[in-house]
Amino acid sequence: MSTPAEIIAARVNGLILDSEPVTTSYIDEDEFDDAESTVSSIYSTNRSTPAPSIADESAFPTLGGSSASGPATPVWGPSMKVSTPAVSQAPALSTSASSSRKGSPSPLFKSSTIQQAFSLNAENLVSLSSPELKKLLATIKAETNTKIDTNFSQQARIRSFVVSGKPDDVKQAKRLIVRNLTSPLTKQIYVPSKARAAIIGPGGKNLRPIIDSNSVRIDIDSEVVYQPELAEDSDDEDSCNLVAITIKGDVEGVKAAEASILAIVDGSTKNTIATIAVEEIVKPFAQELCKDVIAANPAIDISIPAFNSLFSNVAISGPRKPVYAAKKEIKRILSEYELKVVVEEVKIPQVKHKFLPIESILEEENVLIKLPTDGSMNVKFLGEKKKIALAKEKARQHTSQYKVEVLEMSKAHKGNLNHVKSVAALLKKKGIFDEIAKTNKVTVNAPDNADLSNDEILSVPIEIIFKNNEDEQTKATRRSIVHTVNKILPSSTLVVEDIDKFLIPRVPETIDEVAAANKVSYVVLGSRITLFADVEEQSNEQDQDDFVESEEPADGSAGLSVVNEALDSLRKFSKDLSTVEIAIPSESQLYFPPSTIDAIVGAVDSQSVKVTRKNNSVSVIGFKSDVATIQKLFAAAIADNKEHGDSFSTTIHIPSFVVPRVIGKSGANLNSIRSDYDVKIDVEGFDGAKADSNDQSAKSEIVITGIKANVEACKAKLQLLSKKLADETIVRLRIEQQFHRRLAGPKFSYVNRLQDKYNVKIRFPSESNGGGADAPKSKDEITIKGASKGVSKAEEELKDLYQYEKENGFKKTIQIPVKAIALVLGKGGSNIKDIADGTGVEFDFHRDDEAEAKLGYAEVELTGSRTALKEATDKINEIVSEQENLIEKTINVDPKHFRALIGTGGQTRREIIENAGGAHLSGPKFNRLINFPAEGSGSDEITVVGDKKIVDKVIEQITKIVEEREAVITEGIEIAKERHGLIIGPAGSVRHALENEFNVRIRVPQQASSSNIIDVTGLPERIEKLRAKLLELTKDEWNRVVEVPTKYHQLVSERGAILKKIETDFHVIVKHGNLTRTASKLNSAAPSSPPESAVGDNGTKFTIITEKEEQDQAENGEGSTIPWRLIGSEEDTSKAAEFIAERLARAQEATSKGFFYSSNPSVFSKIVGSGGSTINQIRAKSNCFIHVPRAKDKYNQFVFLTGSEAALEKAKSQIEAAIKNQ
């Protein structure tokens, strides 16, 4: 007969399913005997299944029984095995209740009371006599208002209990039975140390309820132990750093407390970051090898370093278990592939290295080309052995297409290396090298400014890179560079070297505006500033093939002087500069690493000081006030370091929800800040759950420890960063993928406008967009990240646009002829994708080979707005029309005309195509339109392939050009040599305009040539029209010319002052033509030095040198003249000419020189008089030429006079009178 406990167990386990009545008789506790309590029961059933035995553990799970596998092991994670200390072995707890068997048939009755059966292992029960047990159970029954039945099985050595009553009462009764009848249990488990704070909670908020509800004691060790054998990921330091937790209490309380703790641990460590160190030999292939793992794990973020990245770690972040599974798989893949990688070395000339297609070969063949770093020719090919041969062949084919020609600039301008380097820097800065390269379709590389600034480098190599069939373009490139360099003469520059090196970075802000206003360019190489005047082109030098010295350009010195004067502000600043040496005590030197110096300097403007660390001191140069500030900060830092060393600590509090972003992906942000400021940063009390909930009231504590200056600077940085991040938000919009292209707009124009307008980042799902918190999580999601206000505005606009697109998602089907399909699609679908991107439509090709063969066309379905559909349809129809109208024609042309039809750098060929309506053609179509036979082939056939209309117009133009060239003649037109500059114009602008207007070629002789014949090549009728234009252009603009001998020019012009008088008194302008520069030099030339005999002992002395004495010192200059060209009315120029002739006659009569010496030059002001009145009277009465020196002149104690001997005597007496009378 079964016991009552067996019956209840059967009921609880759902084994009694019939409807027969069950009668159960229970025995009270007073019927227990000393050996064993017995219960008699009577029940009947018509089921054939036997009732379970009380010894069957499937009916009565054991509380405290020892399992066959030995004692239970405290576990965290799938592989954790921790040795439990020698404590009392407690029974394992298991219960069986009617509510716990999911899927089992329901019991035959339902009641407000329940029955729960469980058992305890006898060997773990406390020793109680039957009366004691009876008394204990009676007490529990009374306290919990329950009915308790118990039985002891000698065979199984277990005591079974059945508790009946209300659910809460049954639960409480069971807890009291277990607590009072079992021995106390001590259990130790290990958890990751980073979960310690989460288990305890702020002020014990999480731990206290676990202790109270389970009546246990919990001790958490403060010591962290490193046990990789217990970790889920032995490579992850966080997983290997564990703390021990000891739980003491009854078996059920310990079990429940352990479950609660592990639940918290699991929650706080549900997301993790793992890294894998990638060997350099495998790194280039990691992205390709891991793409399947990435695709199979969309829930985690896997970052693979690129082959040229500085980083060598795979970073994996996301839920813990998938992260560790992915890590294991990636490690396996990389390890296996590492065994397959071989390295082969190939000797390739260095000049070819830059042409190696490293990225394309890696993408196509999965082979990496690694260039040498030691300057050798040994290039390494890394990859699988079977793939390297093809990769090497592709590399060889690619590099063999290119040649390099080096143009050595250093020999230009007679080897003036500093000038040539400055010119090279200028041509780079102004993009002239790039323009020449673009015009001729080659690549031009010039040295960088660092090499140009290096005085030890004595060459200036200009590399011209071109394809094998581009020799003509190369020659044209060389000629253009040579011509450009020859034009920029040293005489048109001004070199400034007196600006303090510290102030050089301020040069751009000082002179940019004034330089632009005065048409001056400049470059800075080291501490040398070179100013360039933008001068006019003076001659036709395009055909020069080597560097030569050009003629003197027009004078641009005025603009250079203005820019140089603008630098005076920096020269003044140099007076305010100060340099100090700050000694660092030996005991403090350890506390002044670069990061500390940067933190101190950060307190002032970074451009106002420069700090250099030396062995035992710091050198500071800069503005005095800022240098003084830095001195004070260093003194304070030294004092702080004596007090705190590198242990100064401060605490800031930031919102918990921004902590993950402050830390950054894989700790990148925080590690970068730690590195920048060389401090220790600890995040305390960070609650991941609160961070996830965006609870803005929750704060986390950040402790910064280190050198005080660094700590304070780091504190300011973190506060600013957290403030910025606190306002950052991410919005996720669910928008079907089919609308994404239209929302993005043509070439992402709509999205870029929103991003710029609201300063946000908008991301669409993409295989290549990487991870991050703002990465879209599905193909139908778009994210917006940024400041909350901007995100809100962008979200609103994007939703409006989405709604509009939904309402305007029109469809259109286009039929494309089979022969045009390939052209519409393009290589790899490039053409149709360009159309879709450019118009914002979606496309779907319906391809069916059988249907296409039968119908002769394929269909493409377009989706978008009406405007976009029309635009896309027009583009597709244009391609189809082009295919249908494609023709090929040939024309026979004498090969002597090929060069003219191609033009310099292909210019004429491009113009023919553009004039025929082919300007819109893509590169390949444009280049394929006109094909000339290979040079030396002997063929005279030019092939034209393209649209019929364009082809016909091209042939028409070629025919016309050839006919015109057959009729072309060359004639010479005589133009005065001094008028050639008018035909050339600034930078050749006039000549180019004439050539374009009359369609002729004009060749102007070199400046050094004696020829005055200008050769014109073109059609006869055009040459005649040009002749009339040239005669009109070069006619004289002046009425009269007075030729003044060079040796008298300075006297006649009165050092240039007389030109202003002529303009004021006669309304006549004087020009000197191409001798303007010579005239200017004569005007500014210093007077001849006075003889030693002219110096007086004291007071004044007047000395006259006769004509014979003068001839020994004079610079003759016989034979040459300076033209004085007078521009004005006939009457005015006539009067001006008479005035100039009169002064010339006086100069010719001036056969002697006079020197009036005064030991006190201040008396010369009496000679000048008010407004020059006195000296003008002396000049008029004596007919002498008189020059009074300025204070800064070399001979500032002499007044210089020129005239006849008699005139000088008159001037002497008048000068003495002027000094005496005043």
Automatic annotation (TrEMBL):
<dbReference type="Pfam" id="PF24668">
    <property type="entry name" value="KH_Vigilin"/>
</dbReference>
<feature type="compositionally biased region" description="Low complexity">
    <location>
        <begin position="88"/>
        <end position="107"/>
    </location>
</feature>
<feature type="domain" description="K Homology">
    <location>
        <begin position="885"/>
        <end position="963"/>
    </location>
</feature>
<feature type="domain" description="K Homology">
    <location>
        <begin position="1036"/>
        <end position="1145"/>
    </location>
</feature>
<dbReference type="InterPro" id="IPR036612">
    <property type="entry name" value="KH_dom_type_1_sf"/>
</dbReference>
<feature type="domain" description="K Homology">
    <location>
        <begin position="727"/>
        <end position="803"/>
    </location>
</feature>
<protein>
    <recommendedName>
        <fullName>K Homology domain-containing protein</fullName>
    </recommendedName>
</protein>
<feature type="domain" description="K Homology">
    <location>
        <begin position="808"/>
        <end position="881"/>
    </location>
</feature>
<keyword id="KW-0694">RNA-binding</keyword>
<dbReference type="InterPro" id="IPR004087">
    <property type="entry name" value="KH_dom"/>
</dbReference>
<dbReference type="InterPro" id="IPR057778">
    <property type="entry name" value="KH_Vigilin_N"/>
</dbReference>
<feature type="compositionally biased region" description="Acidic residues">
    <location>
        <begin position="538"/>
        <end position="554"/>
    </location>
</feature>
<dbReference type="GO" id="GO:0003729">
    <property type="term" value="F:mRNA binding"/>
</dbReference>
<dbReference type="InterPro" id="IPR004088">
    <property type="entry name" value="KH_dom_type_1"/>
</dbReference>
<dbReference type="GO" id="GO:0005737">
    <property type="term" value="C:cytoplasm"/>
</dbReference>
<feature type="region of interest" description="Disordered">
    <location>
        <begin position="43"/>
        <end position="108"/>
    </location>
</feature>
<feature type="domain" description="K Homology">
    <location>
        <begin position="967"/>
        <end position="1035"/>
    </location>
</feature>
<feature type="region of interest" description="Disordered">
    <location>
        <begin position="538"/>
        <end position="557"/>
    </location>
</feature>
<feature type="domain" description="K Homology">
    <location>
        <begin position="646"/>
        <end position="723"/>
    </location>
</feature>
<feature type="domain" description="K Homology">
    <location>
        <begin position="112"/>
        <end position="182"/>
    </location>
</feature>
<dbReference type="Pfam" id="PF00013">
    <property type="entry name" value="KH_1"/>
</dbReference>
<feature type="domain" description="K Homology">
    <location>
        <begin position="183"/>
        <end position="266"/>
    </location>
</feature>
<feature type="domain" description="K Homology">
    <location>
        <begin position="1151"/>
        <end position="1220"/>
    </location>
</feature>
<keyword id="KW-0677">Repeat</keyword>
<keyword id="KW-0963">Cytoplasm</keyword>
